[in-house]
Write a structure and sequence with these properties.
The chain is of the alpha/beta class and 478 residues long. It has two domains: 268 residues, Aldehyde Dehydrogenase, Chain A, domain 1; 181 residues, Aldehyde Dehydrogenase, Chain A, domain 2, CATH 3.40.309. It is built from 14 helices and 22 strands. The strands form six sheets. Strands 14-17-18-13-12-19-20 form a seven-stranded mixed β-sheet, sandwiched between helices. α3 crosses α4. The longest helix is centred in the first third of the chain and has 21 residues.
């Protein structure tokens, strides 16, 4: 059933590499081995780095409209292959097939967005102070780039790096997660089949720290982009500092959800519960700390628990499944530890709090009530299907509680009061704020956090600009 052949892409050629080393690829729904993932040797990495230099020389001088044509062809191939790529994504990551198709539609849209926006990397003329002088500000691709991405959105995380770099005229070497390699390989094949020049896109796998140390230790990449955890992000930033690489860091969060007493309760519940359990809660912008006004607290818990109990959990390939497994067995005891700590702190289990079955990495959608701010799950990102809910009665106090952590990726507000929505949106320390709905990520809008959730944006004109550098040219006639 798993049809994608996992290979390295180096200088336009697909191969198993020269390391003679690999690791198994596991289906998290049934623990079956789907394939094996080849590791790149240091020789392979050097070849990929060198080819990215040659690819950049070609791609940077390819007219933007010609680059757009190739990216558009790649997007059309993705559309034609979406059913098979979605199956690959679900088999290796676990999310329901419908969610995989939604993610791949984002991939297609983002590819087209960057294809078009790459034609608009405008500069400007600045009036000079001296007669006869012309002052020009231009944008140019930053150079060969490298990227490292997490497993939770194998298509989205890959395309935000790749399409952004290609749209700007950069080459890119990317290491997708070894836990979800097939999606990245399938998308890379679309770019190659669309006519992307050799060396412009290189895809490698291996032991993460070994690969990142070698790639970031090279002076060839001029920019690094990373999606993943905060500790790993800090580690990679330190490695990148030695060669002064520009960085975009999309790191973890711990998104507060504030539900005011005047919110439309049913709409808030549908939005918050649906988004919480999407991808089994393994989403960096997942709502993870629920602050609900005292006046609607009981009703909110009851409604949230009903929605959690109604979810169909199972293999993402099965019809009607709404939530799949966690990515790996290592995540199960982490969920249990969060819940045990919350209970010790006085929280109550409303729904779930247990592993489902003995095969696959399934964990029941869980709702916790009366969770104190001191509980571990209110301080550390759970990255799983556990929703801790607490209450408040003072607007200023809840904003302070929401802002109490060092993270700042996403936050959500539910209220029918426009003035309150505006006030709270401005007061929350996060890069993304959703008011009365959770959809804070589209190809044409900036996506990124603040504080320890990272810096820089992906998506929108900001996402293209991340792969461009500014040059000032001043000239006068002879």
């Amino acid at each position: 059933m798993y049809k994608e052949k996992i290979e390295l892409l180096i200088n336009g050629q697909w191969s198993r590499g020269s390391a003679n080393k690999s690791q198994p690829l596991i289906n998290p729904a049934n623990e079956e081995v789907l394939s094996d993932v080849p590791h790149a040797s240091l020789k392979d990495l050097d070849e990929a780095l060198d080819s990215s230099v040659q690819g950049f020389k070609i791609w940077r001088h390819t007219p933007a409209i010609a680059r757009q044509n190739i990216l558009e062809k790649a997007a059309r191939l993705m559309e034609q292959r979406i059913e098979q790529i979605a199956r690959t994504l679900t088999l290796e990551m676990g999310k329901p097939l419908g969610e995989s198709k939604v993610e791949l539609q984002f991939v297609i849209d983002a590819t087209r967005w960057y294809a078009e926006e790459g034609k608009r990397a405008y500069g400007r003329l600045v009036p000079a102070r001296i007669p006869g002088v012309r002052q020009m500000v231009t944008k140019e691709p930053v150079g060969p780039c490298c990227a490292f991405v997490a497993w939770n959105f194998p298509g989205t995380n890959f395309i935000r790096k790749v399409a952004g770099a290609l749209g700007a005229g950069c080459s890119i070497l990317i290491k997708p997660s070894e836990e979800t390699p097939g999606t990245a390989v399938a998308l890379a094949r679309c770019f190659q089949d669309a006519g992307l020049p050799d060396g412009v896109l290189n895809v490698v796998f291996g032991i993460p720290d070994d690969v990142s140390r070698h790639v970031l230790g090279s002076p060839i990449p001029r920019k690094m982009s990373f999606t993943g955890s905060i500790p790993v992000g800090k580690h990679l930033q330190k490695l990148a500092a030695d060669t002064m690489k520009r960085c975009t860091m999309e790191l973890g969060g711990h998104s507060p959800v504030i539900v005011f007493e005047d919110a439309d309760l049913d709409k808030a519940l549908d939005a918050a519960a649906g988004f919480k359990f999407r991808n089994a809660g393994q989403v960096c912008i997942s709502p993870t700390r629920f602050f609900v006004h005292d006046k609607i607290y009981k009703s909110f818990i009851e409604g949230f628990s009903e929605r959690a109990k109604a979810l169909k959990v199972g293999d993402g390939m099965e019809e009607g499944v709404q939530m799949g497994p966690l990515i790996d067995a290592r995540r199960l005891p982490i969920m249990e530890d969060f819940i045990a700590d919350a209970k010790n702190c006085g929280a109550k289990v409303e729904v779930g709090a247990e592993r489902i079955g003995n095969l696959g990495y399934f964990f029941a959608p869980t709702v916790l009530s009366d969770v104190p701010d001191s509980a571990k799950i209110m301080i550390e990102e759970p990255f799983g299907p556990v929703a801790p809910i607490t209450h408040f009665n003072d607007d200023d106090e809840v904003i302070e509680r929401a802002n109490s952590l060092p993270f700042g990726l996403a936050s959500y507000v539910f209220t029918s009061n426009g003035d309150k929505a505006a006030k709270v949106s401005q007061a929350l320390e996060s890069g993304l704020v959703g008011v009365n709905h959770p959809m804070v990520a589209t190809p044409e809008t900036p996506f990124g956090g603040v504080n320890e959730s990272g810096y820089g944006s992906e998506g929108g004109i900001e996402g293209l600009d991340a792969f461009l550098r500014t040059k000032f040219i001043t000239e006068t006639g002879v």
